[in-house]
Each structure stands twice: as structure tokens, then as C-alpha cells.
Amino acid sequence: MGRYLLRRLLQLVPVFIGTTFLIYWLVWSVPGDPFAGKCGDRGCPPNYRAMMTEKYNLDESIWVQYASYMKNLLQGDFGITFGGREISDIIATSYPNTLKLAVVALAIEAVIGLGAGILTGLRRNGFLDNLVLVSTLFLIALPVFVIGFVLQWLLGVKWGIITPTVSNEMRFSELIVPGFVLGSVSMAYVARVARTSIAENRRADYVRTAIAKGLPMRRVVGVHLLRNSLIPVVTLLGTDLGALMGGAIVTEGIFGINGIGRQVLRSIVTKESATVVGIVVVLVLVYLIMNLVVDLLYAALDPRIRYE
Amino acid sequence: MRVSKRASGALAVGAAFALVASGCSSGNNDGGDAGASSDGAIVIDGTQPENPLVPANTTETGGGAIIDWMWSGLVEYPNNGGAPQNLLAESIDTTDSKVFKIKIKQNTKFHDGTTVKAESFVKAWNWAAYGPNGAQNASFFSDIQGFDEVYTEDPDGPEGPQKAPEPKAKEMSGLKVVDDWNFEVTLAAPTSVFPTKLGYSAFVPLPDAFFSSTPADFGKKPIGNGPVKLVSWQDDVEIKLTRFDDYSLRDKMKIKDVTVKIYQDDTAAYNDLLAGNLDFQQQVPVSALAGEKWKTDLGERALSSTTPSTGIIAFPIYDKRFENPKLRKAISLSIDRQSITDKIFFGTRKPADSWANPLTPGAEPGNCTACKFDVAQAKQLYAESGGFQGKLTLSYNADASHKEWMEAVAQQIKTNLGIDAVAVGVPTFAVFRANINAYKMTGAYRAGWQQDYPDVENWINPLYVTGGSSNDGKYSNPQVDALAKEATAAPSLEEAHKKFAEAVKLIDQDVPSMPIYFGGQQSGHSEKIKKVELTNVGELDITSVEL
After folding, report:
1. What residue stretches are annotated with the ABC transmembrane type-1 domain (chain A) (predicted)?
2. What ipTM score was computed for the predicted complex, to two decimals?
């Protein structure tokens, strides 16, 4: 177990270097001069461009730019934006917001998705099963921004139950609706995967044995059936945290949340490689660590899985 | 000119003409309750300023609006778009439009309690003009004598290996402090419009605190001399402003606190406005314009205004195929501007019929004969011109909402003249501008112009004079240059306007570009606000707000 963990952690290093370089290179290759559009139709004065080019090493090759960026990054210096803001400050203020939103979304999709999956998996082809099938199909078919705008307009403007945008304090009660919107599609998938998994294991030998032994139904479902059926669901949920954080840009925009999405979009448009890489680096770490946690959870769920 | 940086919306990323409006007040002009106003607070929408707030280094609307509120300049532009009036200036005297004696009002204060003196202007202007400081608005000071000594050009352009040489002087020789309340400005050449320019935010005074700090640090906690001062600025969240109680000029605040809430998405802001969480939105989202939805939603709280900005399609005259003025005029005459503003813009913009925006002092409505819709004349001119070979591309930046109207224009040219015209989207404004700046355009392209200061001069010199700062198509007519030069140097504004009118007649024959529509703005406010006006640049006049 310890060696496995160490090996996995060591694997993070090349992945980390590879992803940062790829992202840096991609943003660098976005066509256009970062200052061509900055000052409108009049264009920036040459002295302004010269000053900025020198300040940000923009006249150097990508290798030099990337090397000097990585050197600073390893010393904990994320650099500054073209507007002069510390990128570490941007990360420190925007990440917690996106993380809060993603965690709320994950909790909602886990509770509702799993609940619906278990109920329908146990009682297939009933009214409830059909209702869940239809409603999850509906959620999968609708783009997130449609769900977001409709809920914001209905609940926020028409009925006045919620405020249309989230305040700076990011209170939990304000995040329920955005969290639901963000998690809605994954919720539908969780429900469907859980349903199939439960329904399949329902006919497994060990379940029949447990029932034949005369165990109470609660124990059969709660311990034997559920634990084994959770593996695909945990895979889905675990990798979803990273996807939710990276994909929150639309939800953040609709509900006015100051998260990483707007920062990434802004810095891609202005060709600020340093900001994009800084934010995505942290996101990559979230992905890698969540993957590791999921792998470790398998062992906890299924005793047959062992790591050496 | 300032650029709007919001990611979506009618005037989105890189839309060159940003938000401008003539004075216009809400339907309800009864005024508010003085008690409710005096300690009242409002929340308005805004965008994150791109750079630290230094007036001479701000060229976008997000930071520009805050700067306009936090600073008061020598002159102000009335909300009704008329001629400028003295604000901080007691008098601006000149006999020859070359030497200006400026006297400022005594004992007005900066937000940190220090006094605004003549020196506060001179030092601020010298800082902005000094080349190595790299201020984005440096070119505004180019009229002043000695500018070329403090601002040097890079001899081989920004791409070349050489750097701009160190300027010979640190201060412009044309600026002289007489005493605490008087200073003298000598221009390199007579410029009648100079006093008008003084209302632009690049010309505001700066306190001593600016010079003892760095621009970046000062810009995070800016100290102005205007009706409101900064309380706090939380990046990407909000900027809090409050009334400056020691303010002694005309435009005092009637309310106390203003919170500028920073939105990423204008639809989110609009929904907050409808739900009563936001008190003012300068431009409602495009989605609310369709079918006049915003008027139904807001009723009397919907403010529609026309703005002194023009949407233009320009020709690359450096391309041989566009050399013939008859061809250019034929294309311009084949465009039905009325149907474009009606069908594409739902009537929120007006068809262009003059070269300078008619809200501008010195402009003449209807002086663009090439802006008419006349298919017969267009066809005749097209035949005389010898026709156009190949494909006529009309480029636009696809990161803002320009696709629909550019396509409509292309379709009309195709139908009416039989030219194979297509609208081509360039992914981002940055790439689009880079091509224009490098003179690499192979077809007509979208341009736009928003005036920096209200005078017809601002619509001619930068756009249609040889070497003008935004004459991207390299249009050049020696007669226009001569007339514009005479006009600029005229001893009075009236004479200047007459000369510019003559220059415009020649421009109208040459058709270097095609004005298509005049800008419009659709704003909304909450029920809480009882009275509100917009400034000449379409920003909220926060000093007019009554609750």
C-alpha cells in the first residue's frame, strides 16, 4: 500500500511538467498580439507595447518564457497579470469559490442521484422507475445554461424565492440552486449508473445467499448490495469533482460567482499564459489527487482489490 | 476612446465604440426625497478595471467610469452633449489658440486632504507624456510644445531589435507653472480644440501621493479630486465608493454610497436589476432587446438614449482594388442602412447619415451623401468604375455581436451590385486589430469610432487625415489634409467648424469608409432611483442620482 502510494505520487511529477508545458504552449500559440486589441481601434502607443514586451519577456522564445515561468513557479511565485495583479491572489480568491460550488454540486448529485438510483434499482419498471428515467433523460438532454437561465429566471425573478446572483459571502443557502444546476447532468448519470449496478447485483449469488440466510432486507441492501454496487458510482463521483470545477464557467457566469472560470476565460482572451497555467496547474493537481483517492477507495469497498 | 471589455452583450469585447450617450433623463423627473437621498446607497453594475486606476493609463470602460466619477477635470462636458464648460478651471484664456493661460479654482481638495494646485496638473501631464512611463493615453499630450522631446518612437517598430532612445527631456517645455493657481500651456501649433480636450480623463490632476508611490500601488487605492472617493476595491467582486464631503465644485453628490458590483455576464446583472438587487445597468443584454422585452420588463425605468458613436465599415485604400472612389461610393450607396437598423438592431440604433456623429458640436446632420440608399446611382457608378474583380470580403471580429449586421451588409452589396461579397469573422478582436494595424487587410472591415471629446475635430483628424492615429486604411487627400490643418489651427471653434465642414465635403466625394449606424444605448434602473441622468459618454452621472 505504501509503495503503491509512493509510486503514484512520483508519477505526478512528469504529468505535472507535461501538462503545464502543454497548456503554456497552447496559450502561447493562440494567434494575435496580446496588445493589438487592448487599446481599442486606436491601438496601443508603441512605448506602452515596448514596456510591456520587455516586462513580460514576450520577445523571447517560448522555451525561455516557459523556463523562467517554471523557475519562478517552483519558488512559489505565480507571476503577475498584464494588469499588474498577483496571480497567486487571483488563485487564492477564486479557487475557494469554485471549490465550494463544486462540493455543493457533488453533494447534491451524490444524495439525489444515488437515492434515485437505489430506489429505482430495487423496484424496476414501476412508476418511480419510469419517472426517474424520463427526468434524467430530460436533464441529460438540456444544456447546463438552459437549466441555469430557466431556474434563475423562475426562482429568482418571477417568484423571488432566491436572489438571482450569489453574493460575495457565498452562503450555503445561495449555492443550492447553482450547485443543482452545475451537478444536474452528472446527477442524471449517477442515478442511471447506480440503478443499473444495483439491478445487476440484485441477482448476484451472494445477495440470494444473504436473503436465503434470512438476513433482514435492510442489511442485505445496506451492507452487501450497496457496497459492491458503489464502485462504478464512486469512480464517477470522484473524477467528477475536477470536471465540475473545470466546467463551472457557465454556471459561474449565470449566477455571478467569482470563480476560476472567468479568470481562465479572461486570460486566454488576453493571452496571459502565466495566469492560465497557474489556475490549470492547481486544477490538474485536483484531478490527479482525486484519481488517487478513488483508486484507494476501491480497496476499501471491495476486499478483493489489493494494492502492492 | 475607451473599449468595453464585457464578454458578451451588444457592445462586447473589442467593440471599438463603447458606451456613449447624450444626456437623457428618466421618464420620471419629479426628483427624489432629499432625506432618502442624503444618506442613500445604490448598487450599479460594472466590469473589473483591467489595470490599476491611473487616469492616463486607462482606455477601457470598466476603469474609465470609476475614474470619471473619482476625478474632476478643468472642464466638463454637459450631459446634453453641448459645448464644454469650465469645472475646476476658473478661466482658460488665449488670444492665438497657441498659448493658453489657465487659472484654476482655489482651495479645492484631493481625497487625501491636500490642495489641488497648478503644479498638480503640470506634474501629472509630464508623467503621462514621458515615453518610458508607457502610459496608454500619452498621445493626448502630443499637441503640447516639447512633447517630442519627452516621447521618443522606437526607430524600427516594436518588432525590431532596437529600442526607443532615452528621451532628451523629462518635462515638456510648453508647460509652465506661474503660481499655485495659474499655469501656462504653450502648444506646438495653434489648436483651437485644445480647451475641449481638457475634459478628457487623461488631463486630470494627480496628488503628490501619486509621485511618491508607484503607479501600480497608487492605482489600487487611487486618490482623486472628484465628487466620490474610493472606500475599497475587491478584485472581481465590487468597488465601493462614497461621497467626498469636502467637494466644493458644481456637481456634488446627492446620495452617499455607491457600490459598483462587478459582473461577468450582463444577463446576470439584468436579472438582478429585475429582482431589485441592482439599481442601475448601463446596457441591458442583447437577449432583452428582442421584441422590446426590456421595455415590458422595466416600463418607465427603461432608458433609451442615442450615443455619439458610429459603426463604420472601412476600406483598405492601400489595396489597389479599392483605389477608385467611384467603386467605394457605389458600394456605400448599395447599402440600405434603414433596414439594417430596423431588422438587426430592432431600431435601437439609427442609420448613419453624416460623417461625424450628429450629437457632436460642429457636426452637420445629413452631410454624408454616400450614406443614402440609391441602387440606381450605385449601379451607374459601379459600371463607370469598371467593376470589382473577385471576392469582396467584409471582416469583423467574431468575439462580439457583429456577425448579423455584417452579413446583412454583404448580402445587400451582393444583391444590389452583383459583387461576390461575403462577411468573414476573425476569431478575436486581438487578431483582427493586429491585421488592421499591420495594413494586411485584403477587403473591407468593420471599424467603429467613439468620440474622446465632443468636437467634430475628433471625427476628422484621427480618421481621415494622412498619418492620423486611426487612419488605418491609409486614406490620403492633400486637400483634406490642408483644410483640416487650417481648421485645427483656426483661432476660434466656429471658424474651425466651418473649415472642417469643407473638408467633410471632400471626404464625402472620396468615401474612404462607410458610416453604417449611429450607436444607441438601452439602460435600466430600479424603482428606488427617482431621478437619474446619463453623461455625454453614456455613463451614469452619479451626481444626478436622487432616491
Report:
1. 95-298
2. 0.79
> Do residues A238 and A290 make contact, with C-beta atoms less than 8 angstroms apart?
yes
Collect contacts of B502-508 with beta carbons under 8 A, ≥24 apart: B503/B460, B503/B464, B504/B355, B504/B356, B504/B364, B504/B367, B504/B460, B505/B367, B506/B477, B506/B479, B506/B480, B507/B355, B507/B460, B507/B464, B507/B477, B507/B480, B508/B355, B508/B367, B508/B368, B508/B369, B508/B370
Q: Does domain B34-259+526-546 have CATH number 3.40.190.10?
A: yes
Distance CA B38, CA B547 (A): 9
- Output phi, psi for B490, to 5 deg: -60, 145
Q: Which residues of A touch B58 (CB under 8 A)?
A: none
Confidence band of B27 (pLDDT split at 50, 70, 90)? very low
Q: Given CATH 1.10.3720.10, say whether it is the number of domain A98-301.
A: yes
pLDDT tens by residue, A232-258: 898 888 888 888 988 888 899 899 888
Best residue of A35, A39, A42, A59 to probe chain B, by most B CBs closer than 10 Å: A42
Spell out the domain ranges in chain A.
2-87, 98-301
B134, B236, B448 ranked by CB distance to A51: nearest: B134
Q: Is the pLDDT of residue B28 over 70?
A: no
Nearest chain A residue to B264 by CA: give it.
A253
Q: What is the pTM of this model?
A: 0.83
List, for residues A61-70, the tens digit of each pLDDT value. Answer: 888 888 888 8
Contacts of B238 in chain A (CB under 8 A): 168
